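Reviewer comment 2.1 asked that we show a complete input and output for one of the modelled complexes. We chose the adenosine monophosphate case, as it is the one discussed in the main text.
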Amino acid sequence: MIVVRTVTDLRAALRGRRDGAVGMVPTMGALHEGHASLFRAARAADATVVASVFVNPTQFDEQADLAAYPRTEDADLALAEAEGVDVVFAPDAAEMYPSGFSTTVSVTGPVAETLEGAQRGRGHFDGVATVVTKLLLAALPDRAYFGAKDAQQVAVIRRLVADLGIPVDVVVCPTSRDEDGLARSSRNTRLSPEERRRALAIPRALEAVADAALAGLRDIETLRARAVATLEASGIHPEYVALVDPASFAPVTRLDRPVLVAIAARVGATRLIDNTVVVAGDTGTGDA
Ligand code: AMP
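Response of the prediction step:
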């Protein structure tokens, strides 16, 4: 495995490896099993696997969150190597945002302006879109891998890749969960044992909606209320519980196609997000 810190060195490392497909997995480090599942998907499909490790300052809306973001480079490199990653691109902020940097890739519309875009502010997805565009242009991979856990990020990236005509296949990997159902996240290490137990209400709320949908419930407000009730029962007051179109993030009024259920909530000081896609079962008629 090679570790490179500059775009020039990344391109040099990839030169001569273009016979087979190149797969890229952008990350912010603090790597865990969720990231490893992306590395494995890339390893299975691509001749060369590139991982980027860059804590992108421009996508953080809270300076405290950026400052507290775990930085574990030695462990990250060990995990990447163990998963068969060929090249790690780990630039510093000056490499990504050199002096005079003045360009922002800004996706507009509900896909970027609602939910995470509304809670964290416009700058969040502008930061994500700009850094992902730069990473894709730096490595020019055939495929880029993202986790379904960040569903809105996936939708924003799909939009910018289509709109800018970036020649890359976006591959979405399922959310990797701990045994107890909690979606793996670099921020989970900040949860106390008691907070972690309470946080399990988030996957339970998603399951409650999925079960109700499968049982035939189609009224969106009623489905939403199921999730909210499950969260509130554990003392979690969500920032949002939303049922939206998985691609456009436009609101839906009826469960007549696959619908994304997205939750954001603070548990203690830690902000967690999770989601699932639900479909209507064909057994019920139900507006109940
Ligand atoms: P991050 O380092 O949090 O920016 O995440 C890097 C990539 O890993 C993103 O595409 C995330 O969606 C993905 N990822 C993070 N956690 C998980 C998880 N639990 N399951 C699947 N993918 C994940």
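The pocket of adenosine monophosphate is lined by residues 27-28, 34-35, 37-38, 146-147, 149-150, 173, 175-176, 183-186 (CB under 6 Å). We note this here for comparison with the apo prediction described in Section 3.2.
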